[in-house]
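R.M. (postdoc): so does anyone remember the format we settled on? I'll just put the structure tokens first.
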């Protein structure tokens, strides 16, 4: 049975490995960069497989954070009360088992309990990540814009999923 736990320091090496295996869907990172990101995040969870090993993770940021991400800044300028999913990666061993859907249900529940109006994120269009885009649309995300990032080397689809009554 897959479980979720708070991302703690002992998990970071495994999270870096899973993150970097997800390239180009997510940018490669170092342990130090992920430690810095974790400090900004209001939600940072690992996904543990049946053996209790880290097999995925999600990191998300509340509004008003001191976070210099091009995509986060877009959402900050367009949505006043959102939870921004900065990155989510599951190992190949978990794909197709409904873990992503379960994880997103937990993220949506967290955002709802925190009083957020939207969950926001982005998915790469260039380099393409059509499976992730289909998944996000099935989770209720709607396309809101596109933007070029990383000096034009990446183009993303910006997505937002409304939660309950939007104010």
């Amino acid at each position: 049975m897959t479980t979720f736990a708070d991302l703690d320091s002992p998990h970071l090496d495994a999270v870096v490995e899973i993150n970097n295996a997800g390239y180009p869907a997510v940018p490669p990172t170092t342990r130090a960069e992920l430690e810095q990101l974790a400090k900004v995040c209001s939600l940072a969870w690992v996904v543990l497989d049946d053996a209790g090993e880290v097999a995925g993770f999600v990191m998300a940021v509340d509004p008003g954070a001191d976070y210099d991400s091009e995509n986060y800044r877009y959402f900050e300028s367009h949505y006043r009360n959102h939870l921004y999913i900065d990155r989510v990666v599951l190992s190949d061993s978990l794909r197709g088992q409904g873990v992503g859907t379960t994880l997103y249900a937990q993220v949506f529940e967290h955002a709802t309990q925190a009083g957020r109006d939207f969950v926001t994120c982005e998915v790469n269009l260039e380099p393409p990540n059509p499976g992730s885009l289909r998944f996000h649309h099935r989770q209720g995300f709607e396309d809101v814009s596109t933007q070029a990032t990383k000096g034009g080397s990446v183009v993303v689809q910006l997505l937002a999923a409304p939660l309950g009554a939007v104010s």
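R.M.: ...and that's the designed sequence above, right after the tokens. Also worth knowing: The chain has a mean pLDDT of 94. The beta strands are 3-6, 43-48, 54-61, 82-90, 118-126, 142-149, 154-162.
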